[in-house]
Task: structure prediction
Amino acid sequence: MSDQSHSPVSSDSLPENLAKIEDLILGSGADDFERIKSYSDVFCPFEAIGMVHQEIRHSNFLAYCLNPHKPHGFGDELLREFLYLVADEVETLPSKLELSLMSLHNAEIRREWNHIDLLIRVPNEDGQEIVVAIEQKIHAAEGLNQLKRYTEVVKDHFEKTKHTALIFLPKDATAPSESETWGQLSLQDVVRRFEIVANTRLITAKGTPLLNQYIAMLRRHIMPDNTLTEIAQKLWNEHGEALNLLMEHRPDQHSEIVAAFKAARTEMAETLNAKLKGKGFEGTDITLEPVFDNNWVGHFSVTSWAAIPELSKKVEDKNVSILMPEIAGDRNALRYWSSMVLHPGDAEQRKAIYKTISETAAGKGTGKISIGRRNPIDKIPQYKHFSRIEIAAAPKESDFKETDEFLHDIKSNFVKHWEKALPLYDKLLRSKLLVQ
Result:
């Protein structure tokens, strides 16, 4: 973790810079600036409850809209339009003409069925049911082999079903990893189709105002909006210097979190040291101390290892452990994690440590060490991470989280994690590595 410094403004340039900002806000850029402001200066219930970046909430809302039994007033219209889009994308569904004649009143919309975001199941009188599995991605990336697992799940449960489809629904043009078996829909196409249905009905459905607010929220935050993009480009072209000045001096919560962490890191080490008393190899103490910070990373040297040649290295005339718990963060996403890191050092020393850990580690779980991706012994990354966990993240239930709340999560989860994990490392390394 690291601070972000702001460039000072010289007294000579201050009047000129203020004039540029004034022209942006009150002068030639005022109209466009107000148009930009109008995009966010609205009441939106979805923003009010903090669901903008919550993938699970988006899937909940989509499932509600698709469900013909919910009291939104659209009946099966939105579901039918969605199936038309799927039929355009894959060949395994009935034609759109057949879908238009088909009864959807028995349709089931399931959430998180076998971990799949949405599952549409439409039983037919002739026994030829329709099954559509949907994996929606707003911000999260695909999990390892996620789509492959879901393919097998659908195949196992609906082996005799003729009309099945697997649909990947990202916020952008991201292609599914399993493109041969998964079709892809554009969230923009789904939204556009829903918008047409909602606003061209002779009788306005009860859910129309809410659906329109949801679509407007998507365009503000999730999907590209051409009009907004054009206004923003014009402002950057005409008032780029003023906007850069504002960007350079914007409040940055990450910097606040980093500063709070630096002030608390000694306390964090002392708290953990007290909990690790007598929990090391043969009942010894395990102690940490904060050391150098760089590249948004905070390191803690294990002082009881720093005194052991096989587990230490020299940095600026000081012995530190070559294996260190660290805290790192993502400035933009406001996500913070901790891991045990094998630092650069003597090649043979690093190989011995990595071999000891990798041969003993049995993966994730209580009482085990997670080594992440396994590497050939001669291709160990410069910074090899073990036992990585997320210790703090931007909130899921609201759009804002106080810096003090981030720091509380960082401190408590860091201590909780390493209170359990460090004794495992200490006993493993000191019982096996030092005997060899």
